[in-house]
Amino acid sequence: MSRALGKLVLAPMEGLADDVLRAVLTSAGGYDWCVTEFVRVTTTVLPHSCFTRFSPELNQGSRTASGTPVRIQLLGSDPAMLAQNAAHLALLDPAGIDLNFGCPTPLVNRNRGGAALLDEPELLQRIAAAVRAAVPPAIPVTAKMRLGIEDTGRALDCALALEAGGMQELVVHARTKADGYRPLVRWEWVARIREAVRLPIIANGEVWNVADYRRICAATGCADVMLGRGAVADPLLARRIREGRAEHASPGDWEILKALIAEFWERVQAKLPPHQSPGRLKQWLGMMRRSYPEAATLYGEIRELRRAPEISLALRRCGLPLPA
Question: Which of 68, 102, 284, 310 pairs as cysteine with 64 (C-beta 3.0–4.6 A)?
Fold first, then answer.
C-alpha cells in the first residue's frame, strides 16, 4: 500500500499514550501525526508548563524524536475558556489543536467533558468557533467525537455543528458513549457522517490488524484512519499497513519489537520514579500479548517482579538490547 491510500493517525489514549509511548510507536514508522492525551480546561488559563508536561514535544518543534507531528488535545465545556487556553497554547506553536468530544470516562462526563456534550450540538459549534477564532490560521484545529451518548440520534447534528464551527478535520469514533469499548462498532454511521459533511473525516474504532483497516475503509468510505489500542497491541501495525506487509506478525517482527521494548523501558525509567516504571512496562506487554506470543512469554517473566533492576536483568536474559 502507498501513502496515497490515506493518512494514519495515532490516537490519544488517556493513561496510555503519553510522550514515552508516542516516541516509541512513531519511531516504528507509518504515522502522519499523533494526538496527546487530553488537557482538561476548567476555569483558568493553564501555564505553558502544563502543556509541555502533556507534550514535551512542544520543546522539539511539536514533533516526536522521529519527526512525527504532535497535536495537543483540549477537553472542556466553556467556549470562552477553551478559546483562551487555545490562544495561550498557540504561542508554543503546536502542530495542531484537537478538541475532545469522545472521552466516555464517567469522571470526565460528570464534569461535562468529552462525550457528555454530544446532546448539545449548539454548544459544540460555539466551542469549535471560539477556539478556531482564537488560534492563528496556520495551526490546524480539529475535533474528535463519538456517535452520541446513549444512541446515534444526534450524530449528524454534532458533525454538522463542528463543521459549521470551522473544524478542519473530524475524527469519528464509531461508538456511542454507552458503547464504551465493546467490540461492536457502528462503522456505517461514520459513512453517514462522511456523506453529510464536506470536511475530511477520519475513521476510528476497532482496527487491530490490516484486515480490520481494509474493512473500516470499505465500510466508511474514509481514506484516513486513526489507530488506537490496536496500535499499542501491535506497534508495527501502521508500518504493516503502509508497506502492504502480511496481515499479521511475521517471524522477523519480534526482533524489531525487542529493540522498541528496550527503548520504551529506558525512556519510562528516565521519566517515572522506580516504583511506577514497572507498571507501565507490564501494561504495554499485557496489551501486546494479543498480537505476539513472545510478548506473553516476556510478560510472564516480569509479572511478579517489582523492582526496576530485577526487570532489567530479566529483559536482558530474554535477549533485549539493554545497556549493561
Answer: 68
Backbone phi, psi, residue 301, to 5°: -70, -30
Going by C-alpha positions, the residue among 2, 1, 12 that lies closest to residue 204 is 12
- 12, 38 contact by CB (below 8 A): yes
182-238 confidence digits (pLDDT tens): 999 999 999 999 999 999 999 999 999 999 999 999 999 999 999 999 999 999 999
Which domains are seen in the chain, by residue range? 3-243 (3.20.20.70), 253-317 (1.20.225)
- pLDDT band of 280, cuts 50, 70, 90: very high
Q: How far apart are CA 171 and CA 183, in angstroms?
A: 19
Q: How far apart are the first and last CA of the chain?
A: 40
Contact indicator for 63, 69 with CB cutoff of 8 Å: yes
pLDDT for 19: 98
Instruction: Name the region of 67 (left: φ>0; alpha: ψ -120 to 50; beta: rest).
Output: left
Q: Which residues are catalytic?
A: 103
